[in-house]
Design a protein that fits this description.
The protein folds into two domains: 169 residues, Lamin Tail domain (Immunoglobulin-like, Sandwich); 141 residues, no CATH class. It contains seven helices and 24 strands. The strands form seven sheets. The protein has a six-stranded mixed beta sheet, with no helix packed on it. Bound molecules: calcium ion (4 copies).
């Protein structure tokens, strides 16, 4: 609230009051992203059905995130396609910097499943909901200018697991303001439900142990511990997790790290040597890992200064293939790489 008086001549005007949303900026394509879409939530449990929420659509939500450096003012912003929502009707018109907010299909159902206390601004209006087959989403600012206009899909190359057991579509690296139109800007959430309103902790090594070992194996660290190697291949359990492999399957072709050196038509080495790592996107976030380089196999150092990340390709099962260009002249050198991991 700002109280203002206008000085004219030598008399102050009557005190006028107006509500200003101080230190906030208008929503725009530069500061507001759609960070999650749960268009096909998990089916209702028996408990949820008994409470009156039979339809999985009741649990749909859209999450938005302020990726800008200022608070965002949502006055006049609307969802015009996909779902209907006028943010003037929302519980708050401000999204603080870094904050996430939610629009939900059915607030009572949503709270029944996820609990209260999440930053829900309101419910989809006009009985709208999110199509399971994909549809166009249009978010407009208060002047009708497009903030987001894209069509999500339930078919490849879009993450197909969002159209099954209840995983959400998650915008990758939201802070980098990815192009929402591109399938590769999106991934399936690591957990069913997608952790609405939160960054999400994803799958940790402990979660991975639980899903790969029996109760008795979990008590035996020589089987399930981070440095154990029960299948006697080349990867410890921690490396199996990081590389998206099976800790109980001996597979010599399990690819973790490989180097490709391009040759030209005359079989001459080109300057472009490419280092590739297949890595699990959840483990990548929850483990400490780095690429080490050595010229003699004895002294190892961080490879960061010698390699440059060039691209990341999405593979199955939340694995990615990361490519790095090896910098500098490599023809006369022997270079060794390895990956160091820790919890
Ligand atoms: Ca739906
Ligand atoms: Ca719709
Ligand atoms: Ca192993
Ligand atoms: Ca293995």
């Amino acid at each position: 609230m700002i109280k203002a008086r206008v000085f004219s001549g030598n008399e102050w005007s009557a005190l006028t009051e107006a509500t200003f949303l101080t230190d906030s900026v208008a929503a725009s394509k530069d500061n507001l992203v759609i960070s999650k879409i749960n268009y096909r939530p998990a089916a209702a449990s028996d408990e949820e059905i008994n409470a009156g929420y039979q339809n999985r659509n009741d649990f749909e939500y859209i999450e938005l995130m302020n990726i800008g450096e200022n608070n965002i003012n949502l006055s006049g912003v609307i969802f015009d396609k996909g779902v209907d929502f006028k943010f003037n009707n929302g519980a708050s018109k401000i999204i603080k910097t870094g904050q996430r907010v939610l629009l939900v299909e059915n607030l009572e159902a949503f709270i029944f499943r996820y609990g209260s206390g999440l930053p829900v601004l309101g419910e989809f209006e006009s009985n709208s909901n999110l199509s399971n087959g994909g549809e166009r989403i249009l978010l407009l600012d208060n002047e009708g200018t497009t903030i987001r206009d894209f069509e999500y899909d339930d078919d490849s190359p879009w993450p197909e697991s969002a159209d099954g057991d209840g995983y959400a579509l998650v915008l990758k690296n939201p802070q980098s303001n990815p192009d929402h139109k591109l399938a590769e800007s999106w991934e399936s959430s690591p957990l069913i439900g997608g952790e609405p309103g939160q960054e999400g902790k994803g799958v940790t090594f402990a979660d991975w142990q639980l899903s790969n070992f029996s109760t008795s194996e979990l008590t035996n660290s020589s089987i399930s511990g981070p440095s154990a190697n029960p299948d006697k291949d080349t990867l410890t359990n921690m490396e199996e997790f990081l590389s998206g492999n099976d800790p109980k399957l001996f597979n010599t072709s399990d690819k973790f790290l490989s180097i490709m050196i391009e040759k030209n038509d005359n079989d001459e080495l080109l300057q472009n040597a490419v280092l590739q790592i297949k890595i699990n996107s959840d483990a990548m976030k929850s483990l400490n890992w780095k690429i080490l380089i050595s010229e003699d196999g004895r002294n190892w150092s961080d490879a960061q200064t010698r390699i440059e990340h060039t691209n990341t390709v999405q593979l199955e099962n939340r694995n990615v293939l990361m490519s790095y260009r090896i910098k500098g002249n490599i023809t006369n050198e022997r270079l060794l790489f390895k990956i160091e991991t820790s919890l």
